[in-house]
Amino acid sequence: MSGDVRRLAAGYLRDGDPTGWFEPLYAEAGAGGAAVPWDVPEASAHLRAYPLPPGEGRRALVVGCGPGRDAEHIAAAGYATTAFDISPTAIELARSRHPDTAVDYVVADLLDPPGEWRRAFDLVLESNNVQALPASIRAAAIPAVGTFVAPGGTLLVLAAAAVTGDADGPPWPLSRDEVDAFAGDGLTIVSVERTAAPGSPLHSRWRAVLTR
């Protein structure tokens, strides 16, 4: 993860605000003073490799959407897609990047989401979001993700499984026990795969599929 991320995160973590650094990161990046390492030209390679079933108007939710690349990919598969981020600047960026989008970009907090989202989405994507959260709140964030999945719906989890070099986060890669913990609130694990991520400091990644 870039030095900008760790610099900002460290200060907010010291102050007891483990999610407060997302907004200043996007704000600094917008002013040319920082880089958002996950602001890349395409949707996640591991999402693009996943065989999404046709959306056909079914509802999808993207957790921690950032600039919106993953959300746009899912919407292109036919899903009526909602995507949220805790950072208002990230949501503004997503809307400006995709002015003709069908995605509903929303400012929201994973730990305090709109009540109407509970069990409301046929597909939920958690991609690299929880891994940016420290252990102090991760135990609450992981089960919160599954509450969005509708009966018969699917949760797709993509996350780092290992890092090299400096072990200080973010990101803090997920253990297998943490991946399994997404199976709360009545969800069932369909598959958990650990795949290689060549050319990346994140040498391997999880891809987990769960259903209700």
TrEMBL record:
The keyword Transferase applies. This is Putative methyltransferase. The keyword Ribonucleoprotein does not apply. GO terms for molecular function: methyltransferase activity. InterPro entries: Methyltransf_25 (IPR041698), SAM-dependent_MTases_sf (IPR029063). Keywords: Methyltransferase, S-adenosyl-L-methionine, Transferase. SUPFAM superfamilies: S-adenosyl-L-methionine-dependent methyltransferases. Pfam families: Methyltransf_25. GO terms for biological process: methylation. Residues 61-153 form the Methyltransferase domain.
